[in-house]
Amino acid sequence: MPIYEFKCDKCGKEFDELVMPGKDIKAVCPECGKNECEKLLSKGNVRPHGIPKGKGGYKLSPCHECKSQK
């Protein structure tokens, strides 16, 4: 089941909403109760290509082209 991110047009609150398959994507703001919410572009679950650097940070691996130029 997808989780969508929304922003309320009235109060500006950003929140996540779980949407059941086959349902219309309509969200009600948990802060002010209005249903005038805009669906945001989600960041997704993407990690950069590289070597873990600890505490969630990443040290990027040098690219193959850069190695061959040295």
UniProtKB/TrEMBL annotation:
<dbReference type="InterPro" id="IPR013429">
    <property type="entry name" value="Regulatory_FmdB_Zinc_ribbon"/>
</dbReference>
<dbReference type="Pfam" id="PF09723">
    <property type="entry name" value="Zn_ribbon_8"/>
</dbReference>
<protein>
    <submittedName>
        <fullName>Putative regulatory protein, FmdB family</fullName>
    </submittedName>
</protein>
<feature type="domain" description="Putative regulatory protein FmdB zinc ribbon">
    <location>
        <begin position="1"/>
        <end position="42"/>
    </location>
</feature>
